[in-house]
Amino acid sequence: MATFRLHLPTPFSPKPPPNPSPLSTPEILPSPTDAGFHFREKLLYLQRDLHLDASRALAANPALPLSPLPSLRAASDALLSHGFIPEEAARILSHHPSLLTSDPEDPLLASLRFLLGPVAIPCSQLRRAVLRCPRLLVTSVPNQLQPALYFLRRFGFVGSHRITSQTALLLVSSVERTLIPKLEFIQSLGFSFKETQKMVLRSPSLLTFSIENNFKPKVDFLVGELGRDLKELKEFPQYFAFSLEGRIKPRQQMLKESGLWMPLTDMLKLSDGAFRERLVDLRIESLDKRL
Fold this sequence. Notes:
single chain; disordered N terminus; transcription termination; MTERF_sf; transcription regulation; transit peptide
């Protein structure tokens, strides 16, 4: 009778085989509930859809990693629903990444409604107003925008001088810390309230300039170097809008070297080419008088 034999591999060990090497473990893909997966999703949204520098956005807004993706999209969706194109929404959110984790109802939507309602910015001009000053969307309506609007209207920004998309940026300025001190400085130069009012309504950008870095050095140069009367500012308050180093000083130097004089308006408003042509004309006129 034949004998059945069991042939076992040689060598045979009764011990179980060792655990497989970690390298041989199949790759486990992140599940939709994995925190890392959701974080990468948010990074992709910031970088690919909004074209933001994710590192800077995270540094500026530490709440980003904890906010769900739908919450991050809410701010962009709110802007798009008001006529902003994706590139404009991305630009606004890059300036103020805090909007990504804020309730879109306040301050973003509240500010947009305020601009369209009480301020009466036309819908067609809303984008221009916000893109000119994105800070409008992160500023409290009751604590800042409303008081500033009330003050500016009392001052004279009504009718043909009403707040527009060009001047809406004034609404983010504190009445007590910014607007009143600048108006007081202008009056301190010897102008009456009515004269100050006329100057500011003619050139609203005066309320955006720094007293220390703009007003004072330019007043000193106007009086000390140019030898001008401060009364010239009544007719040309735009003087403060020109660069002291880039335009005012160089043109004054050219006039001084030529022994010539120009009204402030001609001296500063003319283009470089037109200014040189005007210098030539003045030189010829000067020679003609001598001959």
